[in-house]
Structures are given as structure tokens and as C-alpha cells.
Give the backbone structure.
Amino acid sequence: MGSALSLDLRQRIIAAWQNQEGTWRELADRFGVGEATVDRLVARFRKTGSVAPDPHGGGQPALIPDEQLPVVRRLLDSAPDITIAELAEQYRCEVGLRVSRATMSRTVARLGYTRKKRHSSARSATARASRPSGKRS
């Protein structure tokens, strides 16, 4: 899916179509868009009288509402090295709503915090040996 066309480009395509400056294929080639794009713009213009795009739908509302963000912030501040899974469990105990790690991760990001991924065990002091490239002995 390509990026949205600017309003200016949309208006120029419709103006050229209204002035009968070429077929849809010629207009598409001239403005660097597909024929289907010209078709959709003309259909939108005929139906609504405008070429402006529809507003963004907004997506799904957050499972953790803005009113609950102070709870998450307090949990993070009280245990800065808590994992996302542990934070989600603490949130469930506190609020009574079970959320996924992904939901909690998005909430932490909304608060402006970053989470460093940590390994559960210390790093080995010895380097891993690897086979030399080439033929095997």
C-alpha cells in the first residue's frame, strides 16, 4: 500500500479530468499514479464533490485507559527493574484487569519509559567456540 496522495495532487488530477485533458490512463501516466487511483478519485469526486481523504478511523481504544496510567507509573517507579510480565501481573493484582505483555509494553511506551531487555542469567565468561569455515576434519 502506497502513501496517501497530497490534496494538491488529488485536485490537479480532478482538474485535468474535468478539462478532458486525456484518458484515465494518460492522466495516470502524467501524474505518476495508477489508473485505479484516477478511477477512485473521480468516483469520490462524483459522489461527494470533494477529493479530500476520509479521516483516520482512530483504531482501537487502549485497554489501559488514561485514568489508570498513574497506577502503572507508580508500579514502575516502585520497582524500576520489573519485567513487563511482572508489571502486567502487578497491574492485575492492583486493578483486577488482566492485560497481555504487549498491552503493558505499549502502556509503558505511552508513559515515556523504555525497557531494557535483560537476560535471565549472567553472561558466560568464556567465549563460544565456533567451527572454522571450510572443510570439516
Notes: The chain has a mean pLDDT of 86. The radius of gyration is 27 Å. The chain has six helices and no strands.
